[in-house]
Amino acid sequence: MYKNSALYRAAALVLLAAAPYICLATDTRIWDQSDQSDFTKGTPKNISIRSDGHITLAPILKELDSTNVPYLWAIVQDSKGTLYYAGGAPTGATTKIYALPVNGKPKAIAELTGLEIHSLAVDKEGRIYAAVLPDAKIYRIDNGGKPQLFFDPKCKYIWAMAFDKAGNLFVATGDAGLIYKVTPDSKGAKFFDTEETHARSMIIDEAGNL
Predict the structure, then answer these.
(1) What residues contact residue 121 under an 8 Å CB cut-off, 6+ apart?
(2) Distance, CA of 55 to CA of 30 (rounded, Å)
């Protein structure tokens, strides 16, 4: 009786020792996904699926403000990290500029006559410039939130603005596709003719080239 019990225990120990190898004994399989459409049946969670099938972590979206403005067309950041944004409505009589300081609360800092603001810019002194439609004029906002006319290019649209290191403001316009250069004392002149209907965006490189 004792001998049989010992044999049973020995057999049980052998089976337990071999169990992991028995469980792992399976065929190798490869799950290959090479296209974005391969993932369409699933539900992406915190990931981005590129058109070539690559998967990356998705950016985190966080709501910073919720205005009563139907459209926001322009946003810019000053050297302190404060965000300025503006937009408007096709039927409005005035439009506002909003500011969101770092670790602060959003608030309206200026109200301008016009339907929409399509471009904002900040100079090296931290002053805000706004291009208002449909009159296509540029206003500079003083510390009290009062808009002052800075430059009138006599065009129909102002789509973009950019400052160079010398403080000159470049203004991209339509419907003639002209770019203006405006000095800090608000004297402007035609700088470049794109020979297109609209000049919608600009960038200035480190060498000062537009």
Answers:
(1) 76, 128, 129, 161, 162, 163, 169
(2) 17
CA-to-CA separations, 5 to 1, 15, 67, 172, in angstroms, rounded:
6, 15, 81, 94
Instruction: State mean pLDDT over 52-57.
Output: 84
Q: Residue 16 half-sphere exposure, CB side, CA atoms within 13 Å?
A: 6
C-beta of residue 172 within 8 angstroms of C-beta of residue 161:
yes
Q: How far apart are CA 196 and CA 183, in angstroms?
A: 24
Q: Which CATH architecture has domain 71-193?
A: 7 Propeller (2.130)
Residue span(s) of the chain under CATH 2.130.10.10 come to 71-193
CA-to-CA distance for 202 and 61, rounded, in angstroms? 27
Q: What is the DSSP string of 50-85?
A: -TTS-EEEPPPP------S-SEEEEEEE-TT--EEE
Full-model pTM: 0.75
List, in sequence order, the alpha helices (H) in the chain: 2-24
Between residues 27 and 204, the one the model is more confident about: 204
Dihedral of the alpha carbons of 49, 52, 56, 59, in degrees to the nearest 10 = -60
The Cα 81–Cα 101 span in angstroms is 7
For the chain, the straight-line distance linking the first and the last C-alpha, in angstroms and rounded, comes to: 98
